[in-house]
Specification:
alpha+beta, 2 helices, elongated
């Protein structure tokens, strides 16, 4: 870290810093990588890292870490974590599934997806039933009879 770095002490926390490799980074008062609402590290070659008080973290279904080759990692509080999708997507197409920092094997992935699907289906069922219950009933008109004259 940069605990004795003059530039950090001079410029202060929450301000962009640039290292000799042209990477940009932001730090908090504790001199940990941190930035709200934007990446705390922007690598010169194109990757970025979203950090909260020194730990990779990003809300929503967006990756916290990306590299210049296209690999992505989803983190929550410094641990690989993603619900319903792989937490690591490598540039070569391989994926890894992680929940709260623990990697899932194939059987655990299947169980996880089944539990997610069930919860989503239940919620969707409630939403459809609620919408039908509150929807105005369509007016039903008597069927028209067609007459054909020859």
């Amino acid at each position: 870290m940069l605990k004795d770095d003059f530039e950090f002490r001079f410029r202060g926390a929450g301000v962009a810093h640039t290292d000799p490799f042209m990477n940009q980074f932001w730090m908090d008062e504790a001199q940990e990588y941190h930035r709200d609402g934007a990446p705390a590290i922007k690598y010169a070659e194109g990757g970025e890292a979203w950090m909260q008080h020194g730990k990779p973290d990003r809300d929503g279904d967006e990756p916290a870490i990306t590299d210049s080759q296209g690999s992505k990692g989803w983190y929550k509080d410094g641990q690989l974590h993603r619900i319903g999708k792989p937490a690591v997507m490598n540039a070569d197409g391989t994926t890894e599934w992680w929940i709260n920092g623990k990697q899932l094997n194939d059987k655990q992935i299947e169980e996880h997806l089944r539990s997610i699907r069930t919860e989503e289906d239940i919620q969707r069922g409630f939403e459809v039933a609620d919408a039908l219950r509150h929807a105005p009933h369509p007016k039903v008109s008597a069927p028209r009879t067609a007459s054909f004259s020859r």
